[in-house]
Amino acid sequence: MLRELSPLMTAIIIAGRSGSAYTAQIGTMKVTEEIDALRTMRHAAGAPRAAQDAGADDRAAAAHVYTDITGVLGGMVMAQSKLGISFEAFIDRLDEAIQLSSYWTGLIKAPVFAMIIALVGCYRGFSVTGSAESVGTQTTASVVQSIFLVIVTDAVFSIVFNFLDL
Q1: Contact predicate 16/143, CB 8 Å
Q2: What's the confidence (pLDDT) of residue 51?
Q3: Among 20, 54, 85, 99, which one is most buried in terms of CB atoms within 10 A?
């Protein structure tokens, strides 16, 4: 849960929520020619979005921790209802079952996944070509591409962590 499932689930949810929002907002700005106006005023079009979302990595890490907690609590409820393991026994064995390295490897993935989602969302937003239909198409592509890249990156992390014996 802490090492694999939680970071991946969190990234998929954030790709659907934040990645699509980045694409839609930048794409709409492009359709309404606000980006051209910003360029005319000599502002970098991506800078306001990047400055506004400077805390995206922190939010991704916080969402990951929340997912970890709810996942472990869900496991505790299932262990009690399906296996008859009491909450006290589950909590007593939790220290043995969860390694700190599993928590940290999961936590390392969160900001990397957030960066991938933000970059794909912004790239797809800048790829919009002048119509509302294009905004919708690029938004969908943003979510799909973000999820795909997160899964591939997660696989690379697993290979590297396995090689490092973490």
Answers
A1: yes
A2: 46
A3: 20
